[in-house]
UniProtKB/TrEMBL annotation:
The lineage of its organism: Bacteria, Pseudomonadati, Planctomycetota, Planctomycetia, Planctomycetales. One of its GO terms (biological process) is malate metabolic process. GO terms for molecular function: L-malate dehydrogenase (NAD+) activity. Catalyzes the reversible oxidation of malate to oxaloacetate. This is Malate dehydrogenase. Residues 6-150 form the Lactate/malate dehydrogenase N-terminal domain. It is an enzyme of class 1 (oxidoreductase). It catalyses: (S)-malate + NAD(+) = oxaloacetate + NADH + H(+). Residues 158-326 form the Lactate/malate dehydrogenase C-terminal domain. Pfam families: Ldh_1_C (PF02866), Ldh_1_N (PF00056). It comes from the Bacteria. Keywords: NAD, Oxidoreductase, Tricarboxylic acid cycle.
Length: 329
C-alpha cells in the first residue's frame, strides 16, 4: 500500500484554493494510486466556510483522498505538520488599478510566518509553491525565513504566464494550443516578465518561423501576456482564479513529472547565477524535470532585444527585494 502524501493549501476556501483542492483530491495531480491527505489552512473568519468545503470533499467520495486536516492561519505549524507540499495560495488579491508589487507590504509579512512554520513543521522533503502575489518576492521571504529548508524546494508560479503565452501563440498561428511548447517565462510574475517567444516551438518548429509577424511577437504578444492578469480583473471584477488554480496544478505536475524532450516548463526558482542572474533571487526560468530533480535549462542564447527585457524584469526583482529587506530573516 502506498503511503499518503500530505499537501497543505493556504487560502483553501478562497477562489483559487477552492478551484484547486478538489482536483488535487481527485488524483489528477499525484496520480490515481497516490493517496493524499489535504491540509486546508484558512484565516479564522473563514473557518466556517472551510467546514463546508470539507463536507463537499467528503461528498465527492474521492478514493485518493485519505484524510483532511483543517487549521487556522494563527497555527500554521499545525497546518503544515509533516506536509510534503505547501501550496501558498492565501493572500490579499490585487484589485483594478493595482500592480502586483503594490501588495508587497500587505502580503509580504504573511510569508515570514509561513517560512518559519514550514521550517519548523513540514516534512524533510517539503516543496513549496507560492501563488500569492507578488509571488516571486513572497517566495523569497518564505525561503529566507525557513532556515534548514534547501533553497531548491521553493517555487513561485509563472506557469499562468506560460499558459497565457502558449494560448496567445496558438491563436496567432491558428493551431491548437497543444502544438505550442518550450515557452519559458523569465523574471518576475509581473508586468515586466519576459515570455520568451524566441525559444518557443509550434509543432516542433521555431515560433518565429511559424509566426512571421515579428512586430506582434515583440509588441502585442509580450504586453498581452504581461497585462493579462489586469485584463482579467478589469473584465471579471476579481483576479483570475480557475486559471490560477490550473496553473498551480500544472506547476506541481511540471515538477514531479519528467519534462518531454526538447521542451521546458516555467516556474520561478532560486537563481544559482545561471545566465548571469544574481544568485539568490527568485527568478522565472525555463526548467526541466527528470521527475525527481528540477534544473534550469542551460545554454539558451538571447538576442539583444530579449536580454534587455530580461534585464528590466531582474531589476524589478531587485527593487522588490529592497522593499522587503526587513522581512528577509
Ligand atoms: C494573475 O496573473 O492573474 C494573478 O497573478 C492575479 C493578478 O493579480 O494578476
Amino acid at each position: 500500500m502506498v503511503a499518503p502524501i500530505r499537501v497543505a493549501v493556504t487560502g483553501a476556501a478562497g477562489q483559487i484554493g477552492y478551484a484547486s483542492i478538489f482536483r488535487i483530491a481527485s488524483g489528477e495531480v499525484f496520480g490515481p494510486n497516490q493517496p493524499v491527505i489535504l491540509h486546508l489552512v484558512e484565516v479564522p473568519p473563514v473557518l466556517k466556510a472551510l467546514d463546508g468545503v470539507h463536507m463537499e470533499l467528503d461528498d465527492c467520495a474521492f478514493p485518493t483522498l485519505a484524510g483532511v486536516v483543517k487549521a487556522d492561519s494563527d497555527h500554521l505549524e499545525d497546518g503544515f505538520r509533516d506536509c510534503n507540499w505547501v501550496l501558498c495560495v492565501g493572500s490579499i488579491p490585487r484589485k483594478a488599478g493595482m500592480e502586483r508589487g503594490d501588495l508587497i507590504r500587505v502580503n509580504g509579512p504573511i510569508f515570514t510566518s509561513t517560512g518559519r512554520a514550514i521550517a519548523a513543521a513540514a516534512a524533510p522533503d517539503v516543496r513549496v509553491v507560492v501563488v500569492g502575489n507578488p509571488c516571486n518576492t513572497n517566495c523569497l521571504i518564505a525561503m529566507k525565513n525557513a532556515p534548514g529548508v534547501p533553497s531548491n524546494r521553493f517555487y513561485a508560479m509563472t506557469m499562468l504566464d506560460q499558459n497565457r503565452a502558449a494560448s496567445q501563440l496558438a491563436q496567432k498561428a491558428g493551431v491548437p494550443v497543444g502544438a505550442v511548447s518550450n515557452v519559458g517565462i523569465w523574471g518576475n510574475h509581473s508586468a515586466t516578465q519576459y515570455p520568451d517567444f524566441y525559444h518557443a516551438k509550434i509543432n516542433g518548429r521555431p515560433a518565429t518561423e511559424v509566426i512571421t509577424d515579428h512586430a506582434w511577437l515583440q509588441g502585442d504578444f509580450i504586453s498581452t501576456v504581461q497585462k493579462r492578469g489586469a485584463a482579467v480583473i478589469a473584465a471579471r471584477g476579481a483576479s483570475s482564479a480557475a486559471s490560477a488554480a490550473n496553473a498551480l496544478l500544472d506547476t506541481v505536475k511540471g515538477i514531479i513529472r519528467p519534462t518531454p524532450a526538447g521542451s521546458c516548463f516555467s516556474a520561478a526558482v532560486c537563481s544559482d547565477g545561471s545566465y548571469g542572474i544574481e544568485a539568490g533571487l527568485i527568478t522565472g526560468f525555463p526548467l526541466v524535470s527528470d521527475g525527481q530533480q528540477v534544473s534550469i535549462v542551460q545554454g539558451q542564447t538571447h538576442t539583444a532585444f530579449a536580454q534587455s527585457k530580461i534585464d528590466i524584469t531582474i531589476n524589478e526583482l531587485r527593487e522588490e527585494r529592497e522593499c522587503v529587506k526587513d522581512l528577509l530573516g
